Amino acid sequence: MRVAFGEGLLELGSENEDLVVLTADVARPTHVIGFGERFPHRFLDVGIAEQDMVDIAAGLALSEKVPVAVAFAPFMMRAWEQVRSTIARCSLNVKLVGTHAGLSASDEGASHQSLEDVALMRVLPNMTVVVPGDREEVKEATRAIVESKGPAYMRIGRDEDANFLHEGFRLGRATVLRDGCDVAVFSNGYITSEVLAAAEGAPVDAMVVHVPTVKPLDSDTVISAVRRTGAAVCVEEHSIIGGLGSAVSELVSTEYPVHIRRMGVSDTFGESGTYRELLDKHRLSAPHIREAMVEAAKRRGKR
Q1: CA 45, CA 23: separation in Å to the nearest integer?
Q2: SS3 content of the chain, % helix, strand, coil (to 5)
Q3: Could you tell me the pTM of the whole model?
Q4: Residue 71 and residue 110: Cα distance in Å, rounded?
Q5: Distance between CA atoms of 131 and 170, rounded to whole angstroms?
Q6: Domain check: are 36 and 145 in the same one?
Q7: β-sheet with 95-99: strand ranges across
C-alpha cells in the first residue's frame, strides 16, 4: 500500500508542477521520501507537528498549489481541529493521506491503530473519504483525489499486498466484484480480499461489493444490491461506529430497510499482536465473515 502510494505521487509530481507533498517526520515509513529526493523544492517535512502541517497545506492551497499532507493515520487526527476549521469549513483543495491505518500497525498497539479516522473525516462537510483496497487502486485513488477539487482524506494500510481489482477506480463509485442473490457484503480496504475468500467457500450465494469511496457513497449501487439480496453485511477495518457500516446503514434504513450486520472493531481500542491475530480476534478473517454471511442470509426479507 505505502509503496504504491509513493509510486503514484512520483508519477503525479512529474506531471503537475503545482503538486507539493508535506509530511510530519514520517517521510521514509510513508514512502514519500522518493518524492522529496526527486522534487526537493516541492517537499516539506515539518517534523512532529501535524497541526502545523495541515495549516501550511491550507496556505499552499490558497496559493493555488495542490498540497498532499501525509502522516500516520492516528496522528493525522491530532490535527482534526485544523482540518475542520481551516480545510473543510473553507473547502480548500488539500489532500490528506493517513497511512498505517486500521489494524495494519498491529505490533505497535493501541496508540498506532487508527480505528476512528473514517468516522472523524466522514462527518466533516465538503470532505471526500476514500479507502482503496489493493496496490493498483491505491495508485489510481491517489491520482483521483489529486486531480479532484476540494478536501479529501485517503486512508491506506501498512504492508498489505493484495491484487483483486480489475476495474479502474472512480471517485464515488462502488464495484460489484462478485454477483450473488442471498446476501450483499459491502467492504473496502484490504479487508475486501478476506471477504472474497469468505464468499468463495460460503454455502450461500454472496454478492461482494467493494466500496472504496465512503463519502460520497455510491447510493445507487448499494440500494440495488440490497434490493436484489434482501440482507447485508458490512465489513471494515475500523470501528463499527461511524465508518462504512454506518454509512450503508443510514442509507438503507431510509431507502430500503433490510437486515444489516456490521463487522469491524466493536467500540474498543486496539492491542499488540500480529496482523492475522488481530483480524481473528476482531472476527474480521474469512471464516468469521463467512459465518456472518450465512447468518445474515437466514434473515433475508425479515424487516
Answers
A1: 5
A2: 45, 20, 35
A3: 0.95
A4: 17
A5: 12
A6: yes
A7: 43-45, 19-23, 66-72, 95-99, 152-155, 128-130, 213-215
Gap between the Cα atoms of 140 and 210, Å rounded: 15
CB 284 within 8 A of CB 194: yes
114 and 82 share one domain: yes
Q: Is the pLDDT of residue 105 over 90?
A: no
Measure the CA–CA gap between 40 and 155, rounded to whole angstroms: 25
pLDDT in tens, 110-123: 889 999 999 999 99
Asked if residue 179 and residue 267 are part of one domain, the reply reads yes
Whether 257 shows a pLDDT value over 70: the answer reads: yes
Q: Which residues constitute the domain of residue 244?
A: 175-298
Closest to 137 (Cα-Cα) out of 184, 179, 175: 175
Report the alpha-carbon distance of residue 51 to residue 222 in Å, rounded: 36
What the block records as the C-alpha cell of 34 is 522518493
Residue 137 identity (one-letter amino acid): E
Write out the three cell numbers for 235.
465489513
Same domain? For 202 and 138 the reply is: no
Q: Are 215 and 129 in contact (CB under 8 A)?
A: yes
163 occurs within a structural domain: no
Mean pLDDT, all residues of the chain: 95
Strands 95-99, 128-130: pairing kind: unpaired
Nearest alpha carbon to residue 293 among 240, 235, 221, 245: 235
Cβ neighbours, 10 Å, residue 230: 20
- Residues 64-81: tens digit of each pLDDT: 999 999 999 999 999 999
Separation of alpha carbons 72 and 112, rounded Å: 8
Q: Which helix (H) or strand (E) holds 98?
A: strand 95-99
Each residue of 213-247: pLDDT tens digit?
999 999 999 999 999 999 999 999 999 999 999 99
